[in-house]
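Hi V.,

Quick status before I head out on leave. The structure for the redesign project is tokenized and pasted below; the design run finished overnight.
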């Protein structure tokens, strides 16, 4: 079970071949373009035995019933019947069967060629009083409970572009409403996760000022939230409680006044040149297809390898989406303890998802199936590639502050808004989101950069997509070359260049803290 390599063609073929051979040990091939029934495959000396959509798989040789099917030299299931060369291979004849995977803690750890500080890349960021560095300059409003959600939205809505025109250095006033905070067990794991998430946003470097609004009778009391999370109230960190202020309209008015008092100081913030070592990048994928693990995910992984060399931090998450390929990460763990912590989180998920028709138990979404991914092992194979190849330095709980530099893992569901919310709460100042189907996602206060896995989708949805990774399959760029371009674009967005999702105004409704009732 070797680490994934760059996609290749079958021996003796050219870039005009309709097939990709991902590893010499593979017994399946990936269709670059849709294959017709009966289409001649000269490389195999056969004709296709079914219609095969782009990104899907065909058998490269005879595969016996019960034999392991390998992609990128990794087992993605077993054949449920005898397969002949040219047969279409997908969920109808491929069964997910769990098998032992040696974690081999640390076996693939390789030294990182870190760049000296004076050679590290730079970007234009906002340096905060606590030493954190922001890529954006928002004022944020948080609700301690669902009961204050409408109020914080009304406060934020007051600050139209016209009213903010006098404060050009402020990116906006964003309301982070949520649907919990009461009617829940406290103390509990869910309660701790919620408070940790709210605190992570409250101290986020992309927020110049913060207002927290509560109702007054909720379990998640504002004062207790502030005290338990070590938040410091002051001119740029304010709180309001509706039952104490005088109700809905009085709290909206008081909230508007509080934000207005913060705006001059927030506007005084200026970008300055800082090292890329300050960057923490959240890595997401959603609406994946058969090309995601060939183009977008490994190219993003290559960009993260560059970021790590420059001292930055790459945050891989979505724990159900490493199920089946966790050895790719445990073999890179810097200590057995780090590797075991990852396995412990997977064991928690196995208990959590027991008996559920959930992704962890093999069932991937409709879009993933349509895109060519038969089961969770195949999806995980691509998902894990976003983390690159450098050592796994730490494993964090959901929304836990990330202090380690380098490649790290943060536990989360595979549900994109929940995972991204946790990464931002952990300190990510940007999200890089790969997609093969075309996810329409954005986030605040950390913007999202979307990477398309294939050219047809990128061209169809160019208004939403930032980077076309289909150029790898098109033969225009190699994975390392594209990785370098992605890294350079990350620096531009970190310096203030708007992403497509920012231009479209996305991100106001994507704050979704993890409810432990969500199974993914």
């Amino acid at each position: 079970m070797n680490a994934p390599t760059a996609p290749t063609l079958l021996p003796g073929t050219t870039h005009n071949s309709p097939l990709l051979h991902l590893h010499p040990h593979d017994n399946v091939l990936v269709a670059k373009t849709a294959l017709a029934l009966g289409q001649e495959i000269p490389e195999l000396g056969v004709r296709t035995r079914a219609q095969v959509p782009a990104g899907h798989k065909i058998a490269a040789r005879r595969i016996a019933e019960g034999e392991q099917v390998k992609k990128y030299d990794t087992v993605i299931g077993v054949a449920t019947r005898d397969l002949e060369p040219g047969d279409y291979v997908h969920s109808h004849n491929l069964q997910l069967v769990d098998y032992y995977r040696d974690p081999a803690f640390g076996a693939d750890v390789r030294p990182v060629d870190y760049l000296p500080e004076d050679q590290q890349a730079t970007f234009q960021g906002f340096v905060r009083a606590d030493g954190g560095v922001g890529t954006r300059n928002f004022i944020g409003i948080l609700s301690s409970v669902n009961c204050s959600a409408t109020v914080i939205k009304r406060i934020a809505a007051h600050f139209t572009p016209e009213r903010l025109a006098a404060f050009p250095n402020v990116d906006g006033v964003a309301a982070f409403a949520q649907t919990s905070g009461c009617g829940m067990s406290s103390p509990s794991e869910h309660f701790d996760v919620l408070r940790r998430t709210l605190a992570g946003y409250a101290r986020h470097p992309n927020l110049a000022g913060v207002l927290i609004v509560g109702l007054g009778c909720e379990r998640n009391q504002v004062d207790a939230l502030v005290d338990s999370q070590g938040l410091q109230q002051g001119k740029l960190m304010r709180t309001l409680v509706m039952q104490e202020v005088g109700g809905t309209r009085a709290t909206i008015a008081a909230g508007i006044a509080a934000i207005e008092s913060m705006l001059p100081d927030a506007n005084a913030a200026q970008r300055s040149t800082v090292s890329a070592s300050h960057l923490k990048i959240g890595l997401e994928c959603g609406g994946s297809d058969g090309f995601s693990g060939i183009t977008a995910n490994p190219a993003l992984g290559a960009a993260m390898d560059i970021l790590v060399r420059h001292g930055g931090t790459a945050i891989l998450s979505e724990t159900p989406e490493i199920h089946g390929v966790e050895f790719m990460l445990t073999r890179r763990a810097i200590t057995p303890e780090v590797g075991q912590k990852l396995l412990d989180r997977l064991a928690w998920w196995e208990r959590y998802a027991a008996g559920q028709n959930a992704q962890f138990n093999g069932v991937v979404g409709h879009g993933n199936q349509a895109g060519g991914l038969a089961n969770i092992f195949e999806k995980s194979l691509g998902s894990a590639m976003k983390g690159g190849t450098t050592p796994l330095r730490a494993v964090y709980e959901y929304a836990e502050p990330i202090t380690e530099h380098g490649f790290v893992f943060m536990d989360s569901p595979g549900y994109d808004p929940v995972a991204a919310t946790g990464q931002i709460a952990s300190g990510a100042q940007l999200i890089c989101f790969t997609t093969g189907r075309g996810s329409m996602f954005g986030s605040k206060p950390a913007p999202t950069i979307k990477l398309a896995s294939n050219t047809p989708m990128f061209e169809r949805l160019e208004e939403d997509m930032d980077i076309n990774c289909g150029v790898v399959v098109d033969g225009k760029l190699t994975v390392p070359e594209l990785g370098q371009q992605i890294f350079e674009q990350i620096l531009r967005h970190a310096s203030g260049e708007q992403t497509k999702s920012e231009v479209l105004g996305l991100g106001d409704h994507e704050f979704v803290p993890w409810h432990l009732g969500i199974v993914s």
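Above is the designed sequence. The radius of gyration is 24 Å.

G. will cover questions while I'm gone.

Best,
W.
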